[in-house]
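Subject: design request, 258 residues
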């Protein structure tokens, strides 16, 4: 599955980089230990398995509670705690399955989904909507970054922006584009570090905002892609806010589950 998004040499390099003992730093943020490789592979396996289960009509949606996150990993570069581009791999895997011709990825992590953007840039079947605080690490995500097929929508948010601000952007810009794309599946890169309590960023989302954002995305999925949603965990660094926000997110998914 990893080879859908990353060259074999990259896969081998990440495996070789994970030490038998101790910790190795791949960059200033991305540190790996012995278990890291299998943990990242299980994240990839989880999203692909979730796609399988949904296509087998076992359920209409799923949440993958995995670590490490994935949305910063580019084709040949680990970044920002991420080793493999989980959401992009899930989208590319889904496109290999019968009945899936187009996929939407929505990333509401506070940081730019630069890895997902890199991995889907040339894929007209995949539309990516990614919102991020700007300026903020990794520095990319300007609205002018549109993908090779205008299949990327970047929503930069100023420090202090609220969940309502993001939902305004969804209404004005993203949802019409998502409707036009007519996806057969929605993948959510669910990072919860836009929460006002998060120490790594400066947005002002509340736990209740994640309920409303998830409702909006599930309503879209109900109306336009048979309710099919696969959500995968990205960032979130205030553990209490993360726990509450994930619970809010999953509660809405469960309400929409059929
Ligand atoms: Zn993040």
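Subject: RE: design request

Done. Sequence follows.
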């Amino acid at each position: 599955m990893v080879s859908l998004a990353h060259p074999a040499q990259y896969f081998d390099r990440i495996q070789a980089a994970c030490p038998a003992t101790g910790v190795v730093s791949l960059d200033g943020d991305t540190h790996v230990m012995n278990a890291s490789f299998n943990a990242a592979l299980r994240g990839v396996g989880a999203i692909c398995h979730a796609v399988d289960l949904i296509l087998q009509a076992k359920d209409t949606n799923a949440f993958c509670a995995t670590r490490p996150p994935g949305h910063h990993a580019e084709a040949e570069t680990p970044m920002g705690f991420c080793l493999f581009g989980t959401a992009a791999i899930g989208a590319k895997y889904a496109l290999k399955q019968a009945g899936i011709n187009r996929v939407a990825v929505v990333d509401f992590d506070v940081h730019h989904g630069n890895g997902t953007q890199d991995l889907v840039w040339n894929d007209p079947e995949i539309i990516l909507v990614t919102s991020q605080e700007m300026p903020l690490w990794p520095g990319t995500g300007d609205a002018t970054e549109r993908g090779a097929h205008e299949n990327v929508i970047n929503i930069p948010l100023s420090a202090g922006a609220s969940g309502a601000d993001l939902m305004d952007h969804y209404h004005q810009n993203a949802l019409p584009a998502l409707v036009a794309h007519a996806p057969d599946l929605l993948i959510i890169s669910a990072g919860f570090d836009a929460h006002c309590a998060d120490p790594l960023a400066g947005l002002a989302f509340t736990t209740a905002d994640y309920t409303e954002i998830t409702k909006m995305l599930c309503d879209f999925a109900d109306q336009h892609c048979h309710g099919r949603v696969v959500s995968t965990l990205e960032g979130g660094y205030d553990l209490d806010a993360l726990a509450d926000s994930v619970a809010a997110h999953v509660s809405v998914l469960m309400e929409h589950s059929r």
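The pocket of zinc ion is lined by residues 109-111, 191, 193, 234-235 (CB under 6 Å).
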